Amino acid sequence: LEVGNSPENFTAAGVTNRDLAYRLGMYRRALQWQLRENIIFKSGWEGYIPTFGDMISVSHDVPKWGCGGVIHSASLNTAGTKWTLALSAPVVFSSATGAVQQILIGLSDGSVYGPVTASPVMGNDKAVTVPDATGFPVLTFADNQELPKFIFGLQNYVGKLCRVLSVTPNSDETIAIHCSNYDPVVYSFDSLTAPINGNTNQ
Q1: What are the pLDDT digits (tens) for 33-58?
Q2: Are 94 and 101 in contact (CB under 8 A)?
Q3: What CA–CA distance (Å, rounded) separates 30 from 36?
Q4: Helix or strand holding residue 25 (H, E)
Q5: How far lies 184's CA from each of 2, 162, 166, 188, in Å?
Q6: pLDDT tens, position by position, 26-35
């Protein structure tokens, strides 16, 4: 994580086990060191779906967290092997050797499907194909329902994985969502044993 000669002291109320205190301290420091990005954006009424502590995926083209939009239609080919998804925004496939592009589909109930490998449609940068597989969701496009959403990007970079810190309604009927970046390293100390520091009384 880091190396320093001036460790920070903190009090863990009610903790009497040295190993547990060490894990809590390492977890606390990992939060300070790894989760330092504040991300705030506005949403519509779907902003009420997530709550404190939930994991969400955020897309934005400027920091290259993938690109996103809505899916206008989905059609299965005659062989029943792949779906063609018509998208609201153009997507760019990388020309790098071995690059794998993926798409994440957001459903009306707040759940997601994917990410799954996406392939280009020749001559149409607003469409991709994805393989038909067990569990592929039934996508609905009724006039009285919100369209399915998508996030598209390179494998392992399909959106920015974030943890929700707060959800605040605004007077203009939008929802402000405040979140931080997520890094699983903060949970990597759960089974550690406190190191020997040379003082047998601690």
Answers
A1: 888 888 899 988 888 888 998 988 88
A2: yes
A3: 10
A4: helix 18-34
A5: 16, 11, 20, 7
A6: 888 888 888 8
